[in-house]
Each structure stands twice: as structure tokens, then as C-alpha cells.
Amino acid sequence: MSKVTDVPPNGGNRKVPSRFGEPCGSICLVYDAPNASYLRVYEPAGAFADADYWRAYAASGRAPEPHEGPRRYREELYERIGWPWRRVPSFERDAYVIDRGEQAEPLICPWNLRYRIAQAAMELRRLTPEPVSEALVPSDFLASAAEVVASDDLLDRHEAPADTHEQVSCWSVPLRWFTCVRPEDRLLAIHPRATWLRYRTPMSKARTQLAVARNLIRAEFGEDGDLAAAIGETTEWLEGFHHESVVELDYGGLVSRMDYEELRREDSVDLTWEALDRLGANEPKAAQECYARLVERWRDRRLQERLN
Q1: Domain containing 75: what range?
Q2: Does a structural domain hold residue 135?
Q3: pTM over 0.85, yes/no
């Protein structure tokens, strides 16, 4: 059963409920978010090398809500990066936080903007022809980005790269992400000032569901299927995190392109697991029909956004 939250019109003092505690901070004015969805991991503060910093940060109440974060770090980027680009700028160490009360440590999803910007610059250089990348990213900035990536000192994590707490997908939700969560993990808030759709689930449950999905797909289509490989990559990504973490699938800015009724009817997670259950019941044709509906739905949404 999904949860629908009525957000107070004044954006007021009521926090958004969650099975895993309450996101720190109150609901604020919705903004024109980037057309992106997010898969995030929140780890217990004690899992970080600098746990005391993150405990104090969570207690300070200055952590942004997930629905305001993308706008905020985009603004910080514009303010600091300047033109012409010379060096990768420094940023405040911010994060999304889930407050679980006094009986449990807060859960932290760091932004790590400096590392992520540096890594993005390096990736752009790798994927584009040299004349194009030089026009887009000045050589001084690229050299600075290489230094940042090379000298990553793991301030935020013990054993994993600093950028790994959040994955981003433009225009749609990758189908493999739907296998991380179940319909009962759904959290929907609808209000003109604050509308969002998220799924939150414990790490142990997410890992189990990914394993189930991958095994069902491999049993039917073999080892070489693209979806099975993609699920395997997500599984590998999650393996690096603390076992008491929480996984969050956030529709992010995509909700601004969906009306309230469409949000209420949005059932891609249900459709994903219906297809997988059909595979498990040895009904491949019915499973294929469910999967085809899912692919068509998100292909149409991507096309609409790009045309607009």
C-alpha cells in the first residue's frame, strides 16, 4: 500500500513521514527541478571516516530536502565556477539526511560536488573528440579535475569512491532501478508547493530484490541479456555500502511533467514486479507484455521531453 502525504500549504513545520525516520528540514517551495531521476544511498553516520562531522551536520538542521537539493547545488555550481573555467571549485560539504531519532544514527547521502564535477569533466574529455572537449572544457580546468580525481582522499567513505552515493538519470527512470524497490516502499506527496514521488527500502531488501530479478531474467534469457547485465552493475554498486543503509529511488524533477492523477496512477514498480512474477510462474508471454508496456511508457516520456 503506497503512502500519500498531504503537505501543509504553508510549507510549514510538519516534516514528511517515513518508515526510516523524517528527512531533516521542512518542506519548502517547489522549484523547476532538472529533468532527472535519482537513485541514492543513505549510510549511517558511523560508516564515514569523519562520522562526527556528519553527526553534527545532521543535528544542525541545515540539510536540504531531496526535492530542493538539485536546484541548490546547481546554483552553487554557477556561483563558484565562473568563466573562463580555471580550477574545480571547492564547495560546502552538504548532504541529504534522514533523521531516525535519538535511538539510531542519522542516515547520510553526501553530495560530494567537487569530486563529481571533476569526474564529469574527465568523462566528457574521454567521450568527445579532442577539439570539441577542448572548446567545452579549458585545459587548465581539465588539469585541475585530474588532480582532484587522482588525489581523492576518501574523506566521506572508508572503502568507496566519494561520488557513489547518488546516481542520476536524465529524462527518465532506468528500468533496472525499479527492481531495487517494491510497491509497498512508495512515498507520494502531492501539493502545489511540494510534490514528489519516492521509494525507500532497506539495503538488505534492495540487494535481495536485485538478486531475485537478475536470477529470473538470466534463467529465461541467459547470461548475455542487457537488462541482467545492468542489474548486475547496480548490484555491484550497492555492495560497497554499509548493510544498514537505505536505498532511495526518487523521481526528482520528472514529477513536474506529470499531473496529479498521472502521479497517483504511476505504477512502473508494480509493472516491473508483475513481469518478474510472470517469469517466475513460467509465463514468458505475459511477462513480455508487461515489459513491453513499461518500455513503451518510458520511451514515450523521453520523446515528449526531448521534443519539448
Answers
A1: 3-112+156-261
A2: no
A3: no
